[in-house]
Design a protein that fits this description.
Radius of gyration of chain B: 20 Å
Shape of chain A: elongated
Helix content of chain B: 55-70%
Number of strands of chain A: 1
Structural class of chain A: mainly alpha
Subcellular location (chain B): Mitochondrion inner membrane; Mitochondrion intermembrane space
Keywords (chain B): Coiled coil, Disulfide bond, Electron transport, Membrane, Mitochondrion, Mitochondrion inner membrane, Respiratory chain, Transport
InterPro entries (chain B): NDUB7
Order of helices and strands of chain A: HHHHE
Organism (chain B): Trichogramma kaykai
Largest interface: A-B, 22 and 37 residues
Helix content of chain A: 25-40%
Family (chain B): Belongs to the complex I NDUFB7 subunit family.
Number of strands of chain B: 1
Number of helices of chain A: 4
Largest sheet of chain A: none
Number of helices of chain B: 4
Oligomer: heterodimer
C-alpha cells in the first residue's frame, strides 16, 4: 500500500517513458518505501519537499508507527472533499502528484467518510434507535406478561402416576 | 384467534377465576354429570413399555398404539413407510387425548366461573 502511495506522490516518476529501458527511482516497490524517520531539521525539510507539503504542514507519524517519514495528514474521507472542483482524477477526487493519506485505502468514497457531518444529530439517532427497538422489545415484553402463551389444555394425563383420569362418557 | 383474545381479556380482568397453566383439573371429576364418568383405560403395561424402550414422556394413554408402531418398525425396517397406518393411529389417539384435555380445561374454566358467581352471592 505504501508503494501505491509513493507511486502517486513522487515527482521523480513524472517523465518516465512507458517502455523506457532506463532505470529510474520508483521502478521497484522497494523504491516506493518512505525514507527513515526525519531526525534533524534538514531531514524534515527534505521530507516535506518530497511529499509536496509545506514545512508547517508536515508532521510525520511517530517513529514506532512504521511509516518512516510519511506525513500524517488530516483524517478526512475523500467524501468530504469539494465535489465540484475539477480534479485530475475526478472519480477519486484526487489531483496528480497529490500526497495521499497513509490510510487512503480505507478513506475512499466507497469506504469510510471520516469527518463528514452526519445528517442527523447523535441525540436524534439515539432517540430513533431506542424508539424502534424499544417498541419491538417492549411489545414482546408486554405480550409475554399479558398474552397467555400456552394452549388451553390441562396437564397431560399419565396413567402410571397413580391418579385416575376420566373420559367424558358416563358409565351405564 | 378469538379464543386467544378472549383468554387475554379474561386473564387480565379476572385472573383469579382462570384455569392455571399446565395444571390438572381441581374440581370433583363427576360434578355435574348424570352418574359417574368412565375411567380412561391404560392398555400397555410398564413392563412392555420398558422392554420396547418407549421414552417415559410417551407413557400416556396412547402407549399401546406406540408399541404397535415400534413393533411394526422393528419388523419391516428399513422399509418403515409400511408402518404409516400405525403411525396414523398414534396420531389420531393423540388428537383424541388432546381433545379430552381441551374439554377438561373448558370444564375447569366454566366451573371456576360458576364458583365466582357463588362467591359473589356469598359475599353479597
Amino acid at each position: 500500500m505504501t508503494c501505491y502511495m509513493r507511486l502517486f506522490s513522487n515527482t521523480h516518476i513524472l517523465r518516465r517513458g512507458l517502455h523506457s529501458s532506463v532505470s529510474f527511482k520508483g521502478h521497484w516497490n522497494k523504491d516506493w518505501m518512505p525514507n527513515q524517520y526525519p531526525e534533524s531539521e534538514e531531514e524534515r525539510k527534505r521530507s516535506a519537499k518530497n511529499y509536496n507539503l509545506h514545512e508547517s504542514e508536515y508532521t510525520p507519524y511517530k517513529d514506532d508507527h512504521g511509516y518512516g517519514d510519511y506525513p500524517k495528514l488530516p483524517y478526512l474521507g475523500v467524501a468530504t472533499r469539494d465535489p465540484f472542483y475539477p480534479y485530475d482524477n475526478p472519480e477519486h477526487r484526487r489531483n496528480f502528484n497529490e500526497t495521499l493519506h497513509a490510510e487512503i485505502d480505507m478513506l475512499g468514497e466507497d469506504r469510510y467518510d471520516a469527518g463528514m457531518p452526519s445528517r442527523f444529530s447523535k441525540g436524534y439517532m439515539l432517540w430513533a434507535f431506542v424508539s424502534v427497538f424499544g417498541f419491538l422489545f417492549g411489545s414482546c415484553y408486554l405480550s409475554i406478561l399479558y398474552l397467555p402463551s400456552y394452549q388451553p389444555v390441562t396437564a397431560k394425563q399419565y396413567p402410571l402416576d397413580g391418579k385416575t383420569h376420566y373420559t367424558f362418557e358416563t358409565r351405564k | 384467534m378469538g379464543n386467544l383474545l378472549l383468554r387475554t381479556w379474561e386473564q387480565s380482568t379476572d385472573p383469579e377465576y382462570q384455569p392455571k397453566y399446565d395444571a390438572p383439573p381441581s374440581f370433583d371429576p363427576h360434578l355435574g354429570f348424570q352418574g359417574k364418568r368412565e375411567e380412561r383405560v391404560m392398555i400397555a403395561t410398564e413392563q412392555e413399555l420398558r422392554a420396547a424402550k418407549i421414552p417415559k414422556e410417551d407413557w400416556d394413554y396412547c402407549a399401546h398404539h406406540r408399541l404397535d408402531l415400534a413393533r411394526c418398525r422393528a419388523d419391516v425396517f428399513p422399509f418403515v413407510w409400511k408402518c404409516r397406518d400405525e403411525a396414523a393411529t398414534v396420531s389420531h389417539c393423540l388428537k383424541d387425548d388432546w381433545i379430552i384435555r381441551m374439554k377438561e380445561y373448558e370444564r375447569e374454566r366454566r366451573l371456576l366461573q360458576r364458583k365466582k358467581i357463588q362467591d359473589q352471592a356469598a359475599a353479597a
